[in-house]
């Protein structure tokens, strides 16, 4: 039985900072951000967007096209959770009006969360072939103003519908996993911003990639020349480029060129959005689907990395109907408003504060989008913009 991705939804907040503006404000050569880091813009979430509202908005993109009564599993992977106890997925389930019989929970292992959700959904569909599963990665990457990580922030959500006989991509169950208890990036309970050992984090990412990629090829008798494209977790696009350069180091020129061209197709969206943690790898997948010419059965390799750290290399195959199912991500990107750095700094600082209980938050989102409207009796309220 083929199991895989049938629909992809994407959401990013309606504001961004241009990297040249940020570089000028930080007294840095803009080419460091544009070329050295590989980012052009980063989405900014104001206080009325969080992991829950973004997850709802991403899923709502394809919701009218699916039978919601068939959804048996809903998982939200996030490292920007809004509650220490209650799952983000319960708020999402309520907004999407899914049935009470759905199994739903939140899952966490840094940026690996959506990959964990996908393989949990794969196992679920293999024993519940008449059901479907919604899995979502939803995050706001916050390092802080004037930090080295500031240029690698972002916000957004990717939602996937997993089912049998998928229209877009089938998932292959063979994977190569590697985990180790390390401290490259983490966010202590109560801290709104992440702590990171930046240089160390980039080195372990590459070490984990080399190990899982080589191991996958050896165990599954697959050669790198079999891949149409390799996709990477993209905390910033230069990180993916470093991994791709390692992958193609000893390849014949023709194969190296093919993988380099597809890599360029896979980073177009991330360059405009920034890091969305759990969804980043799958924003790269969406970017590839939108920009590349793919055909049935093309083999796509994916490297998922979650700090702390857990990594896995695995593969998808392109299915015949993928192009018909693409929902244009540029409709979401092109509606964004460019912030001045002063406006971004104000929004960033406000978004770190806990809302005053009982005070309603307003949103400047477009009609139909969901937003966080504040707390009442310390209960989070989510509304659809009218
Ligand atoms: N023109 C062109 N390039 C320039 C330049 C200029 N004028 N000035 C500098 N550069 C280049 C540098 O040569 C460097 O390139 P290489 O990496 O190829 O050597 C690059 O720009 C970055 O410059 P620095 O090395 O000086 O970097 P920095 O000290 O400013 O910090 C960072 C970079 C460590 C990535 C920092 O942004 C950070 O800590 N980010 C958050 C952590 C992160 O994303 N880690 C990734 C792995 S962990 C992970 O993947 C999980 C996750 O999602 C967080």
Automatic annotation (TrEMBL):
Record's keyword annotation contains Acyltransferase: yes
Keywords, in A-Z order: Acyltransferase, Transferase
Catalytic machinery residues: 79, 111, 233
Main enzyme class: transferase
Binding-site list for (3S)-3-hydroxy-3-methylglutaryl-CoA: 29, 143, 242, 275
Residues in Hydroxymethylglutaryl-coenzyme A synthase N-terminal domain copies: 2-164
InterPro entries: HMG_CoA_synt_C_dom, HMG_CoA_synth_N, HMG_CoA_synthase_prok, Thiolase-like
Family statement: Belongs to the thiolase-like superfamily. HMG-CoA synthase family.
Listed name of the protein: Hydroxymethylglutaryl-CoA synthase
Source organism (scientific name): Lactobacillus iners DSM 13335
């Amino acid at each position: 039985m083929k199991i895989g991705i049938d629909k992809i939804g994407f959401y990013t907040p309606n504001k961004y900072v241009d990297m040249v503006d940020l570089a000028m404000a930080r007294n840095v050569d803009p080419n460091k951000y544009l070329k050295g880091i590989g980012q052009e813009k980063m989405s900014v979430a104001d206080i009325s967007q969080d992991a829950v509202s973004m997850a709802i908005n991403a899923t709502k993109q394809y919701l009218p096209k699916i039978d919601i009564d068939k959804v048996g599993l809903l998982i939200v992977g996030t490292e920007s959770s809004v509650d220490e106890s209650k799952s983000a997925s319960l708020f999402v389930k309520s907004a999407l009006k899914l049935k009470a019989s759905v199994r739903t929970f939140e899952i966490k292992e840094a940026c690996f969360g959506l990959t964990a959700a996908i393989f949990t959904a794969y196992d679920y569909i293999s024993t519940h072939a008449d059901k479907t599963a919604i899995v979502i990665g939803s995050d706001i990457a916050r390092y802080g103003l004037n930090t080295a990580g500031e240029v690698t922030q972002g916000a957004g959500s990717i939602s996937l519908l997993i089912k049998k006989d998928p229209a877009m991509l089938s998932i292959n169950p063979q994977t190569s996993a590697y985990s180790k208890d390390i401290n490259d990036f983490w966010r202590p309970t109560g801290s709104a911003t992440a702590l990171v050992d930046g240089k160390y984090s980039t080195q372990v990412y590459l070490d984990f990639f080399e190990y899982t990629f080589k191991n996958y090829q050896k165990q599954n008798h697959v050669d790198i020349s079999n891949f149409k494209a390799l996709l990477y977790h993209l905390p910033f696009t230069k990180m993916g480029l470093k991994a791709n350069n390692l992958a193609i180091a000893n390849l014949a020129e023709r194969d190296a060129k093919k993988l380099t061209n597809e890599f360029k197709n896979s980073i177009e969206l991330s360059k405009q959005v920034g890091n969305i943690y759990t969804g980043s790898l799958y924003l790269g997948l969406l970017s590839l689907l939108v920009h590349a010419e793919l055909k049935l059965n093309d083999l796509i390799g994916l490297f998922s990395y979650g700090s702390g750290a857990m990594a896995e290399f695995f593969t998808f195959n392109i299915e015949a109907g993928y192009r018909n199912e693409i929902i244009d991500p540029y409709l979401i990107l092109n509606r964004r408003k460019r912030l001045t750095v002063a406006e971004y700094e104000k929004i960033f600082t406000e978004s770190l504060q806990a809302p005053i209980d009982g005070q309603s938050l307003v949103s400047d989102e477009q009609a139909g989008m969901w937003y966080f409207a504040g707390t009442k009796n310390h209960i989070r309220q989510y509304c659809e913009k009218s």
